[in-house]
């Protein structure tokens, strides 16, 4: 598949934007704590990126595979070097375990893979393809139980989704993409602009509302986030909306006072519907690497995360961490983001992800089948 990096598109240059890959890195949580994300926050503008100008459209699988290259190429090169001359003895198995851990897959999965190989292939030669096949199978086995769609319960009126995560993870964009998806399914959607810190954040959500036909409930900048969440739910109930998604301000998991605010949002939502929020979606930026594990742990403790979305898998991603998180937490992984556009959100599938990580050729890779019917 093509790995070519075209520069910024004409549209990007006209608007003074960076190439998508640079953006993904620039907005990653490598430099967390910034109250203001570094890039353009307009949902409408960024939808053009990766779809216009000189850039060749790629299938979402191609984007995923290219994006996972940081995990998979480190893994691939190391595996090739490891296997070239040696039999699968104790030392080689130990080296393999180290390589898998370095690729962010986590100790548990690394041990699982080496144990299987020790059992089946000890002291035998194994070639690259066989090894990758075993890896892909084992990674898929870890991911399969967590690959679950974000199911809207029609009995809830509305189904409440609280969206949380660190600064710049992709919360608002994911809400916009999900709103588009739900609207295509014929559902009525209310968006609560619970990121009340920045005027730009409220504007960004309003733009997504306009684009998707979702109603946005917003208050002025600086108002109380939990009061906003309460009001959004109240309006959604009055309008008998199918879904309400509540955006929140990005917060670092180690900022206790901000995390306490999330607890309060949940408490206030429950005053109207004690079964809500029905989903607490934690958005993780794939370029973050190991820190995503820590984010999952703390957000889970504070606000009862029920599922994950992983964004920026089209960038120079380190999605291997998702395998470690799946093994440790068993939380459903609902969707993955493979671009900034409205249709760049896809259901998470274990086999595709596993094969992309080990760099194995994916049958029908060039097909756009996964994108079919997803345009708004
Ligand atoms: N390449 C790529 N970029 C993405 C993806 N998802 C989001 N982004 C971009 O990441 C940047 C941050 O996204 P937001 O949705 O504003 O993130 P956020 O979590 O709401 O940020 P805060 O509200 O500031 O905490 C924007 O430039 C998005 O366009 C993705 O899947 N791929
Ligand atoms: Mg936001």
Automatic annotation (TrEMBL):
Residues 1-59 are annotated as: Disordered. Part of the signal recognition particle protein translocation system, which is composed of SRP and FtsY. SRP is a ribonucleoprotein composed of Ffh and a 4.5S RNA molecule. It is found in: Cell inner membrane; Cell membrane; Cytoplasm. It catalyses: GTP + H2O = GDP + phosphate + H(+). It comes from the Bacteria. It holds the Pfam family SRP54_N. Residues 157-363 form the AAA+ ATPase domain. The keyword Transferase does not apply. GTP binds at residues 165-172, 247-251, 311-314. Its EC number is 3.6.5.4. It is a peripheral membrane protein. InterPro entries: AAA+_ATPase, P-loop_NTPase, Signal_recog_particl_SRP54_hlx, SR_rcpt_FtsY, SRP/SRP_N, SRP54_GTPase_dom, SRP54_N_sf. GO terms for cellular component: cytoplasm; plasma membrane. The gene is ftsY. GO terms for molecular function: GTP binding; GTPase activity; signal recognition particle binding. Residues 39-52 have a biased composition (Polar residues). Involved in targeting and insertion of nascent membrane proteins into the cytoplasmic membrane. Acts as a receptor for the complex formed by the signal recognition particle (SRP) and the ribosome-nascent chain (RNC). Interaction with SRP-RNC leads to the transfer of the RNC complex to the Sec translocase for insertion into the membrane, the hydrolysis of GTP by both Ffh and FtsY, and the dissociation of the SRP-FtsY complex into the individual components. Belongs to the GTP-binding SRP family. FtsY subfamily. Residues 158-359 form the SRP54-type proteins GTP-binding domain. It comes from Microbaculum marinisediminis. This is Signal recognition particle receptor FtsY. It is an enzyme of class 3 (hydrolase). Gene3D superfamilies: P-loop containing nucleotide triphosphate hydrolases, Signal recognition particle SRP54, nucleotide-binding domain. GO terms for biological process: SRP-dependent cotranslational protein targeting to membrane. Residues 64-143 form the Signal recognition particle SRP54 helical bundle domain.
């Amino acid at each position: 598949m093509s790995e070519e990096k075209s520069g910024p598109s004409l549209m990007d240059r006209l608007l003074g934007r960076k190439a998508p890959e640079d953006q993904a890195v620039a907005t990653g949580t490598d430099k967390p704590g910034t109250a203001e994300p570094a890039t353009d926050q307009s949902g409408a503008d960024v939808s053009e990126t990766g779809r216009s100008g000189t850039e060749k459209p790629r299938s979402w699988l191609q984007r995923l595979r290219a994006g996972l290259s940081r995990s998979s190429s480190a893994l691939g090169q190391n595996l090739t070097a490891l296997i070239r001359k040696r039999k699968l003895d104790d030392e080689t198995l130990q080296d393999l375990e180290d390589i898998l851990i370095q690729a962010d897959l986590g100790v548990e999965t690394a041990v699982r893979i080496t144990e299987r190989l020790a059992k089946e292939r000890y002291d035998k030669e194994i070639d690259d393809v066989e090894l990758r096949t075993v890896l892909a199978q084992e990674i898929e086995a870890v991911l399969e139980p967590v690959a679950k769609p974000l199911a809207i319960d029609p009995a809830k009126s509305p189904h409440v989704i609280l969206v949380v995560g660190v600064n710049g993870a992709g919360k608002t964009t994911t809400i916009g993409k999900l709103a588009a998806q739900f609207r295509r399914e014929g559902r009525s959607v209310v968006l609560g602009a619970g990121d009340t810190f920045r005027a730009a954040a409220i504007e960004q959500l309003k733009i997504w509302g306009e684009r998707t036909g979702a109603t946005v409930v917003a208050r002025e900048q600086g108002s109380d986030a939990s009061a906003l969440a309460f009001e959004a739910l109240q309006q959604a109930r009055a309008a008998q909306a199918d879904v309400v998604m509540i955006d929140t301000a990005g917060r670092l998991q180690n900022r206790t006072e901000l995390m306490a605010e999330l607890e309060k949002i949940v408490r206030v939502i429950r005053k109207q519907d004690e079964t809500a929020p029905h989903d607490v979606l934690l958005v993780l930026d794939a370029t973050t690497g190991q820190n995503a594990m820590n984010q999952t742990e703390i957000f889970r403790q504070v606000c009862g995360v029920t599922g994950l979305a992983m964004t920026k898998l089209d960038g120079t991603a380190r999605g291997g961490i998702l395998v470690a998180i799946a093994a440790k937490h068993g939380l459903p992984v609902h969707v993955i983001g493979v671009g900034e556009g409205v249709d760049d959100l896809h259901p998470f599938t274990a086999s595709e992800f596993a094969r992309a990580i080990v760099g194995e050729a994916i049958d029908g890779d060039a097909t756009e089948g996964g994108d079919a019917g997803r345009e708004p």
